[in-house]
Write a structure and sequence with these properties.
By secondary structure, the chain is mainly α. The chain has helices at 28-48, 64-67, 70-75, 77-80, 86-102, 105-109, 112-121, 137-158, 164-192, 203-225, and strands spanning 4-5, 10-11. It folds into 2 domains: 4-49, no CATH class; 58-225, no CATH class.
C-alpha cells in the first residue's frame, strides 16, 4: 500500500508506512516535511515571545557607554547639590551651537539620555507602536513652546535671588528638576512604547533641527547671490 505523509497528502512508491520505510533517512518528502515543521515552530515561537528577548545589546557607542551616567547624576544628584544642574546648561549651549553646523549629530551619537534609554529601558520595553501624534510637527512645536515657557519662568525666578551664588544654585536646581521630569516621562514612554519614544519629540532635538534648517537656508541664499 502506498504510504502517505501526514497532513501533506504527498505519496511515494514504497509500499510501507513512513515509520517503517528503509528510505526514511534519505526521503526528500520527509526532509521537506521536517523543514517546514521547524519553520512553522520558529514562527510560532517568535510570535509568542516578546520582541525584547531578541535584543541582546543596546545600540550605543563607546562614548555613550559612560555618558548615560550623566542622566541620574544631574536629575538626582542635582536635587542635593544644585550646581550639578549647571552641567546641563553648558551641554545645551554646546548642543545648540553644534546643531547649526551638524544638525542632530548629538542625538544619534552622544546624547546621554538616548544612551540611558537604550541601556536601561530597552530590556524592559513593551515595544508598543509609537502614537503618530508624537511625531507630528505641531505636537513637537507645542512641546518646545511648553519647555521654553517653563524654562524662562523658572530662570527668571532663580535670578531674582539676592546673591550671585544663590542664583546659581537656584538656576542649577531648575535644570536638575527639568532633567528629572523629562527623564521620568522618557522612561514611562520608553516602557510603554519604543525605548526612544521621547526622542521623537524631544524639544532639544526639535530645536537642533530648526537651527540646522536655518543654516541651510542662509547658505542657499548666499549660493543664489553668488
Amino acid at each position: 500500500m502506498t504510504a502517505t505523509i501526514e497532513n501533506k497528502n504527498q505519496t511515494c512508491d514504497v509500499k510501507t508506512a513512513c515509520s517503517a520505510c528503509p528510505m526514511s533517512g534519505s526521503c526528500s518528502l520527509l526532509a521537506k516535511e521536517r523543514t517546514e515543521e521547524k519553520a512553522e515552530t520558529k514562527v510560532i515561537t517568535k510570535n509568542k515571545m516578546p520582541k525584547r528577548f531578541f535584543i541582546k545589546k543596546p545600540n550605543i557607542n563607546k562614548i555613550q557607554k559612560f555618558s548615560w551616567i550623566m542622566v541620574p547624576l544631574i536629575s538626582l544628584g542635582g536635587l542635593w547639590y544644585h550646581k550639578l544642574g549647571l552641567i546641563m546648561a553648558v551641554m545645551m549651549v554646546f548642543i545648540l551651537g553644534l546643531s547649526y553646523f551638524r544638525g542632530r549629530l548629538w542625538c544619534g551619537n552622544f546624547c546621554p539620555r538616548g544612551a540611558f534609554l537604550d541601556y536601561l529601558i530597552k530590556p524592559i520595553s513593551l515595544y508598543g507602536k509609537i502614537p503618530g501624534i508624537f511625531t507630528s510637527k505641531y505636537f513637537r512645536f507645542l512641546v518646545v513652546t511648553i519647555f521654553m515657557t517653563v524654562f524662562t519662568i523658572r530662570t527668571k525666578a532663580a535670578f531674582s535671588a539676592w546673591s550671585t551664588m544663590e542664583a546659581l544654585d537656584r538656576w542649577g536646581l531648575v535644570f536638575a528638576v527639568l532633567c528629572l521630569v523629562t527623564t521620568i516621562i522618557a522612561i514611562v514612554l520608553g516602557v510603554l512604547f519604543s525605548p526612544r519614544t521621547w526622542c521623537s519629540f524631544c524639544p532639544m532635538g526639535t530645536l537642533q533641527k530648526v537651527i540646522y534648517s536655518l543654516n541651510k537656508k542662509l547658505n542657499n541664499k548666499k549660493a543664489i547671490k553668488a
